[in-house]
Design brief:
single chain; 576 residues; alpha+beta; Rossmann fold; 16 helices; 24 strands; 32% helix; 15% strand; disordered C terminus
Length: 576
């Protein structure tokens, strides 16, 4: 504050533009609207302003420009004033914008907002003759053909995008309060029609809540609280009732007219819990506990449904006289994975299109771009997308959440768009996302994002820096001068490391040290995970015996960050 007016330090302003919001201790206390405003400013501002030095330089230049006035012109109304009066030495500024400061921020951001540039889905194909997209099929070759779409009483011209599924963004909820008594009551109601010996939901859930511990201000025996923002971990041993809790939570969200996505490791688990949740919702609707229409949908990859159905069928080995699990389930798991293609009897092609690669979005006609199959709204292949858009409970798997895409497009907030990923669909249109086996989920996310680059190899000119060095000769001299220093440093470090390892100057193990026998795998020091156990042989000054010293952490960065925020303790000789 300066004379009662709020002053904005350049250091704090640059921090907000650095994107490290979660390191701010007040971030969790902000409302959804306040967080959105901060993120909008971050996305609008140039990335270089996240560095406090760059921000300070730019801010001082702007303040100095405000102070430059021509004596012959009317005096300007300053929007910002430097604290201390000297714009070239200021470390903070005082806004003089008048009115609400946050309203001023919103007005400035509004200038940079543009209509969405997301592409629209392809138009539906109408009656007539269409060429199909050409694909390559192993052991078959190129497959292409011609599709003749007839006219039907309700289909005389191409559909518009209104036939695509409709979904709206969920309103933000900063906090979801789930009373424990409501969950226990729902569990009892779900199994009220079961024989006494088959009732386990209420007892399991009650036992789980009785032993739960939390750092939250609310006891788990009173309520569960979910807050918007970061990931909240629910940890319990196997067999304690986590799956039961997720199942009852799904019913609670449906009862409250909230949407929830449940992410499970594989399709088999998704099919099982989808079947159970659908049964639970039917029971609660019959008891008039849920008074509105509700449903549970299984969202999966449309291109892999046929292969998954075959794999699932091969895993089942039952006596035809005693149907076993399939008979108990009633609705076979293979049914939701099966579909038929309406194009097949109307298509003339050089060979059959493989299941999952049908020309659903690649129908062509002269003068018309790629068009979509008119049977998409009624096709079983894309039925999961339509069901997921209208259901309160959506079940999907890890792979689909990380890499899946709603191929056909959707009407999102009233506008037809394509390229909506399953992750965006879940996070944008659902009030909560529950992830089972989060360790496995994070591992798959890291594997998906990770890649490898060969920095040096004994094979001639096979490493990436060597190829960059060669390709740089095709660049202008100024660009080559900017590129070569960085490439040269990478080559020097990589070549030194490989040659040092090959000549035994460096070793990738520390087996000479007595502490290596008790060393936790994948650790080089207490509190550090995922670091490289690279050691350099040296002589101990105390006993003149061999010892080892970790190389500087700045030289070899670990893939995973240090578990503790402190640096590893120095290594001392075990013989001293």
């Amino acid at each position: 504050m300066d004379d009662g007016a709020p002053a904005a330090p350049f250091r704090k302003a640059a921090f907000l533009l650095s994107g490290q919001f979660r390191a701010w201790d007040r971030w969790k206390a902000l409302t959804s609207e306040e967080r959105r405003r901060v993120v909008d400013v971050f996305r609008t501002a140039p990335s270089r302003l996240g560095d406090v030095r760059n921000f300070t330089t730019a801010a001082r230049a702007l303040l100095a420009a405000f102070g430059d006035e021509n004596p012959g012109e009317p005096q300007k109304l300053l929007t910002f004033e430097p604290v201390g009066g000297d714009p070239l030495a200021a470390e903070a500024a005082i806004p003089r914008v008048g009115g609400d400061l946050l309203a001023y921020v919103d007005r400035q951001i509004a200038r940079f907002r543009r209509p969405s540039a997301r592409p629209k889905p392809p138009e539906f194909a109408g009656p007539g003759t269409w060429k199909t997209g050409e694909i390559y099929v192993p052991q078959v070759g190129q497959v292409h053909g011609q599709l003749t779409i007839p006219t039907y009483p309700g289909f005389t011209e191409a559909f518009d995008h209104d036939r695509l599924p409709h979904i709206d963004s969920a309103p933000p909820l900063d906090d979801i309060h789930i009373p424990t008594e409501d969950l226990l009551e729902l569990a009892a109601q779900i199994e009220s029609g079961e024989p006494e010996e088959k009732r386990y939901l209420h007892a399991t859930l009650k036992g789980l809540f009785s032993v739960l511990q939390t750092t939250d201000s609310i006891s788990p025996q009173e309520a569960l609280r979910m807050t918007a923002g970061g990931l909240e971990i629910f940890h319990a041993p196997t067999g304690t009732g986590k799956s039961v809790m997720v199942r009852v939570l799904a019913a609670w969200f449906a009862q409250q007219s909230h949407r929830v996505t449940i992410v499970l490791p594989d399709i088999k688990a998704c099919l099982a819990i989808t079947r159970k949740i659908r049964s639970d919702l039917r029971v609660l609707q019959s008891l008039d506990v849920i008074k509105h229409e509700t449903a549970c949908a299984h969202l999966m990859s449309s291109s892999g449904m046929h292969d998954r159905a075959h794999k699932l069928a091969r895993l089942i080995d039952e006596d035809p006289q005693t149907p076993g699990e399939w008979g108990e389930n009633g609705e076979r798991d293979v049914d939701p994975l099966s579909y038929g293609c309406a194009q097949r009897p109307l298509l003339e092609s050089s060979a059959d299109y493989p299941p999952g690669r049908e020309p659903c979005l690649s129908l062509y006609r002269q003068g018309v771009g790629a068009s979509a199959c008119p049977w998409i709204p009624t096709c079983g292949k894309f039925a999961p997308v339509y069901e997921a858009c209208s259901a309160h409970v959506v079940v999907t798997n890890h792979f689909a959440f990380l890499q899946g895409n709603l191929r056909i497009g959707v009407n999102l907030d009233g506008r037809p768009v394509r390229g909506v990923s399953v992750a965006e669909f879940a996070l944008r249109t659902c009030h909560a996302v529950l992830v089972d086996e989060v360790d496995q989920f994070q591992s798959r996310a890291v594997d998906r994002c990770a890649g490898e680059v060969v920095l040096h190899s004994r094979r001639h000119w096979t490493a990436a820096p060597q190829e960059m060095d060669t390709d740089a000769k095709r660049l202008p001299i100024s660009d080559e001068a900017d590129l070569l220093p960085s490439v040269g440093q990478v080559r020097l470090m990589a070549e030194f490391l490989l040659l040092a390892v090959c000549s035994n100057a460096l070793r990738l193990d520390v087996m000479d040290d007595e502490r290596a026998a008790n060393r936790v795998p994948d650790r080089t020091g207490p509190g550090c995970a995922g670091t490289w156990p690279v050691a350099a042989t040296a002589s101990c000054p105390t006993c003149s015996g061999p010892t080892w010293t970790p190389l500087p952490r700045q030289t070899f960065r670990p893939i995973s960050p240090c578990v503790s925020r402190t640096s590893c303790p120095p290594v001392t000789c075990s013989r001293a």
